[in-house]
Automatic annotation (TrEMBL):
Gene: Sytl2_0
Region (Disordered): 1-29
Alphabetical list of SMART domains matching this protein: C2 (SM00239)
Polar residues bias (residue ranges): 1-12
Keyword Membrane (UniProt): yes
GO terms of biological process kind: exocytosis
One GO CC annotation: plasma membrane
CDD domains: C2A_SLP-1_2, C2B_SLP_1-2-3-4
Record-given protein name: Synaptotagmin-like protein 2
Record's subcellular location: Cell membrane
Taxonomic superkingdom: Eukaryota
InterPro entries reported in the protein's UniProt record: C2_dom, C2_domain_sf, SYTL1-5_C2B
GO MF annotation terms: neurexin family protein binding
Length: 350
């Protein structure tokens, strides 16, 4: 049994392929995503040039202003991107791992036509020292191409937990190829254990005349494992659920908050009714996991269950982007009416 159960009604118009406006329906006029996309922080060209050269920088923490400072001094002997012109236009970019999206990127100005750029710039992060000490600094150098894809020139990764904070001097560090944590760090956000079931119209027993027969989608969020921990005290997580394209309050459901546990057990069931069988190919169940804090919640990862066609009721939408695993899970539910389908799906950026 689940500790809580939520039920919400939807009315889909199966003839016009657009949501109805009946008394029990939600406002489904909007087909925009429930939240802004977390853009890939590693978009660019990684294979065109080999990483080489060095970067000079220093790290410091300003206790008074609670500010982490990265003093980027200069680079030497960077790779040449445009061999015909012997040209590179480099800049330096930084992120704090594991959650790049939370603190955002910082970057220097672009220095044109040089493989030995001098910056003397300070990149700043407002962050508590205790939180900083469970982060890693990813510092990378890029060639700026305003007409195409920026080219990766090398990077260095610093474990801030083991950093010598008494060292405030500028030091030289070799630039390396893309690291494994850069490839996998933001992608591995944990896994969700859940079951889903579709109950077709007419299999629910007797219904009153005012409530015509309709299908139901049952979502049983069991637990999540290996969540990102963004602070030393641990993660206080909860799960949000929408059935897109509906992003109204009627669509929104959530679990309780599980405190200080990277492996929370929710055991929470949500039931959405008003589904006709044909609606399953146009709807998408979005489940997102969040870290709860007093002032704001931080996105940890999510899944989208649907057919991943890019279309919803004939309209092109960016949230119909289910992975192969998510599509297979949804298809299995569609083909096995009235049966619980269990799955273990990796959380991802949405």
């Amino acid at each position: 049994e689940s500790d809580t159960a939520s039920e919400i009604s939807f009315q889909f118009n199966k003839h016009k392929k657009t949501p109805s406006t009946g008394s029990h329906s939600s406002d489904m006029a909007s087909v925009s995503s429930v939240s802004g996309s977390v853009l890939s922080v590693y978009s660019g060209d990684f294979g065109s040039v080999d990483a080489q050269g060095t970067v000079e920088f220093a790290l410091d923490y300003d206790e008074k202003n609670r500010e982490f400072q990265v003093h980027v001094s200069q680079c030497k002997d960077l790779a040449v991107v445009d061999e015909k012109k012997g040209r590179s236009d480099p800049y330096v970019k930084t992120y704090l791992l594991p959650d790049k999206a939370r603190m955002g990127k910082r970057k220097t100005s672009v220095k044109k036509r040089t493989v030995n750029p001098v910056y003397n710039e300070v990149l700043r992060y407002k962050i508590e020292k205790m939180v900083l000490l469970i982060q890693k600094l990813n510092l990378s150098v890029w060639h700026n191409d305003p007409l195409g894809r920026n080219s990766f020139l090398g990077e260095i990764e610093v474990d801030l937990a083991s950093w010598d904070w008494s060292n405030r001097k500028l030091n030289w560090y070799p630039l390396r190829p893309r690291s494994l944590s850069a490839v996998n760090g933001v992608d591995h956000r944990g896994v969700m254990n859940l079951s889903i079931k579709y109950v077709p119209p007419g299999s629910l027993g007797k219904v009153c005349p005012r409530n015509p027969p309709s299908g139901e989608v049952h979502i049983w969020v069991k637990d999540v494992k290996d969540l990102l921990q963004l602070r030393p005290s641990g993660v206080d997580s909860f799960v949000k659920c929408y059935v897109l394209p509906d992003t109204s309050k009627k669509s929104y459901q959530k679990t309780r908050v599980i405190k200080r546990d990277p492996n929370p057990v929710f055991n929470h069931t949500i039931v959405y009714d008003g589904f006709h069988t044909e609606d399953l190919k146009d709807a998408c169940v979005e489940l997102t996991v969040w870290d709860h804090e007093k002032l704001t919640n931080h996105f940890l990862g999510g899944i989208r269950l649907g057919l991943g066609t890019g279309l919803s009721y004939g309209i092109s939408v960016d949230w119909m982007d289910s992975t192969q695993e998510e599509v297979a899970f949804w298809q299995e539910m569609m083909s096995a009416a009235n049966e619980w389908i269990e799955g273990l799906l990796p959380l991802r950026s949405l």
